[in-house]
């Protein structure tokens, strides 16, 4: 008697993510909170992998500027290590290189098994569907290859259109713009501790000043792990983007960061003690941008008020016993002001040492 129970397909690809197993349709014993590949993302992944470099009319190659790369002539070389002179010089081997040449990733549009999926607050992200060894070529960064003038025109156009993201990266003397037509690499998010590294290569038959971008594994990457790269574009204070990588050493923003001339070297600030809440010694805070004011501590009198008010005592930190002392006080004329000062500071600031010092002045 044959069973009427439907058989589960067993020929689907199985992937692991967050210690759970999924098949290629996202099914996983029907008990998982969120499958890694969702249907619309699978379609997006397939289309993104097909996209190659598009040569815009602004990308012009004069005959005298065309790069011609020689084929590797080392016997037995697979062009996969720096033993190959082309690999050592970051040159992609020409099409007519020996059989078995592994240094033609850009021409062949090589891409490992990846998928575009939901990355939470970061939007979409790229995830690995196979184990990736350190140093392996993962994918190229493809889009429209444009000139600097076309880049400037598009930058203004995207600003007028209100596009939230600009994916354009510099490629030598040119630019790669995958904003509206790009491959899967454009969905890779930024991280301050990335697991991919971007390496530039020169291509046979292209402009000698063109440097295309390839993503390589910076370390061993596991199945289901998100692929990230460090965005090393120049810092733009008007268009800076907040970093959401979550790394312990996160800089807080994407890109190289502000230049030294855009920063105030040192701003003296009296910082309250974490234990007592008392304003302490002067510390220097760095990496404060121009025109940015240091916020005042909540429920505390400002430093300016303590120093400039003629009716207040001069306050300073004693480095040995960490007590606040009062100087230049005439106890006959300032007795009432001193008592008010103790009350204003509040119970969390009204330490016993402070009160004793004040009362000594009144005796």
Would you give an account of this structure?
By secondary structure, the protein is an alpha+beta fold. It folds into 2 domains: 51-113 and 123-229, SET domain (Beta-clip-like); 267-362, no CATH class. Helix content is 18%, strand content 21%. It is built from 7 helices and 19 strands. The protein has helices at residues 39-50, 85-88, 105-108, 148-161, 303-308, 331-345, 352-362; strands spanning 14-17, 20-23, 54-55, 114-118, 124-128, 137-140, 144-146, 169-171, 174-177, 189-190, 196-201, 212-217, 226-229, 263-264, 267-272, 279-285, 288-289, 314-317, 324-327. The strands form 7 sheets. Strands 3-7-9-8 form a 4-stranded mixed beta sheet. A 4-stranded mixed beta sheet has the order 4-5-13-10. A hairpin with a 6-residue loop joins β18 (314-317) and β19.
Mean pLDDT: 71
Described by the principal axes of the CA atoms, the overall outline is globular
Count of discrete alpha- or pi-helical segments spanning 4 or more residues: 7
Order of helices and strands: EEHEHHEEEEHEEEEEEEEEEHEEHH
Main β-sheet description: 4 strands, mixed
Name the CATH class of the largest domain: Mainly Beta
**Number of extended strands:** 19
Subcellular location: Chromosome; Nucleus
GO molecular function, one term: methyltransferase activity
Protein name: SET domain-containing protein
Keywords: Chromosome, Methyltransferase, Nucleus, S-adenosyl-L-methionine, Transferase
């Amino acid at each position: 008697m044959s069973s009427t129970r439907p058989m589960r397909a067993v020929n689907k690809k199985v992937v692991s993510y967050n210690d759970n197993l999924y098949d290629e349709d996202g099914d996983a014993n029907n008990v998982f909170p969120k499958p890694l590949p969702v249907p619309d993302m699978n379609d997006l992944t397939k289309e993104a992998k097909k996209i190659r470099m598009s040569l815009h009319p602004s990308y012009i190659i004069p005959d005298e500027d065309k790069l011609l790369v020689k084929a590797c002539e080392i016997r037995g070389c697979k062009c996969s290590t720096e033993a190959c002179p082309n690999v050592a010089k970051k040159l992609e081997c020409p099409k007519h290189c020996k059989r078995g040449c592994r240094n033609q990733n850009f021409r062949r549009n090589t891409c490992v098994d990846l998928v575009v999926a939901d990355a939470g607050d970061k939007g979409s992200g790229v995830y690995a569907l196979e184990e990736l060894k350190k140093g392996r070529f993962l994918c190229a960064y493809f889009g429209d290859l444009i000139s600097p003038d076309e880049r400037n025109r598009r930058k203004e156009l995207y600003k007028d259109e209100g596009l939230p993201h600009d994916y354009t990266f510099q490629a030598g003397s040119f630019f790669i713009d995958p904003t509206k037509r790009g491959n899967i690499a454009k969905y890779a998010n930024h991280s301050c501790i990335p697991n991919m590294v971007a390496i530039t290569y020169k291509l046979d038959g292209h402009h000698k000043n063109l440097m295309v971008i390839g993503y390589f594994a910076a370390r061993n990457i596991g199945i289901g792990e998100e692929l990230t790269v460090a965005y090393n574009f120049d810092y733009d204070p008007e268009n800076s983007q907040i970093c959401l990588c979550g790394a312990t050493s996160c800089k807080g923003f994407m890109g190289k960061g502000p230049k030294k001339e855009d920063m105030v070297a040192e701003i003296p600030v009296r910082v309250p003690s974490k234990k007592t809440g008392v304003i302490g010694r002067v510390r220097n805070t760095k990496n404060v941008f121009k025109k940015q004011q240091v916020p005042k501590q909540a429920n505390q009198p400002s430093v300016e008020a303590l120093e400039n008010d003629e009716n207040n005592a001069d306050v300073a930190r004693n480095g040995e016993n960490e007590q606040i002392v009062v100087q230049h006080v005439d106890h006959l004329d300032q007795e009432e002001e001193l008592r008010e000062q103790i009350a204003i500071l509040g119970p969390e600031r009204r330490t016993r040492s402070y009160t004793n010092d004040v009362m000594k002045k009144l005796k």
